[in-house]
Design goal:
The chain has 99 residues and is mostly helical. 92% of the residues lie in helices and 0% in strands.
Length: 99
Amino acid sequence: MANPSRKKRKRKASVVGAVLKLLFLLLLLSMLAAYIANQVALSSKKAELDTLQEQIDQQKSSIRSLKDLTQDLRTVDKNVEAILNNQVPKKQKTQEPEL
């Protein structure tokens, strides 16, 4: 009689072992799926970062160009003002309009 109970125990142990192996395999698969999902999200964020960095570089370049143009306009404005000041006689500069 001891022999049939041993077979039942072995069968139970092998079923429990198979269930544990299956659960472990499911755990590994779920971890792999989570890892893959994280890698996909990470690569998407890296691509977004690259795009934003390109936009920042373009905007910095535009700002530099605008600063150069602004400086050029200031220079032109000073030159025009100097030319106008030289063309207007000094008497007219100091006279106030009569009412």
